[in-house]
Structure prediction request, 221 residues.
Amino acid sequence: MPVQSHSVVPLPVRIEAAGDMLNGDLSLPADAAGLVLFAHGSGSSRHSPRNRMVADSLQRARLATLMLDLLTDNEERVDVITAEFRFDIPLLANRVRAAVDWARASQPTSLLSIGLFGASTGAAAALIAAADRPQIVRAVVSRGGRPDLADAALDRVVAPTLLIVGGRDDVVVQLNREAYARLRSEKHLDLVPGATHLFDEPGALDEVARMACEWFLRYFA
Prediction:
């Protein structure tokens, strides 16, 4: 696998979603093999250190990444207090869809295969967007996600889907098993032994990044 010898400088982007402007960082390695759009959840933003670490690994494997804030600045300020937006799955899904459409229409990324990486509630938003854009989204990866919150959209997902869960994250493991049973696309459920919900254990996030990288490269080929 070709490896980047230096870090990729992110390009700030602004994406419109139903009249709201979302902030993002687009990192585009030379000769990118595809684009992975990150859908954060549960109060995270494009600055999430866990997702940044995964994104860095993807970039070293020649995958472009789009780190996107799914909430506006005002919504984030409210959500810190009320948590009312982080579980608004239809809102988050609409914004992931808007980002997918933006990536397909924008010159730097229009020819790249597109995949979605969702964490927590962002995984549900990613799966809904994948179900709604079956001709565009080539693969989905969920990290410690809540795919169960995608509900009826699970039956419509055609993109190959990888669910990654910490082996000690018992409640989320069960929720992922239930969602996995409903998925009709090519699918795989991977448990990271010894890892809890945030994958804080040594080496756990490295394993997530390795799995995600292999999954996207397989289906972008």
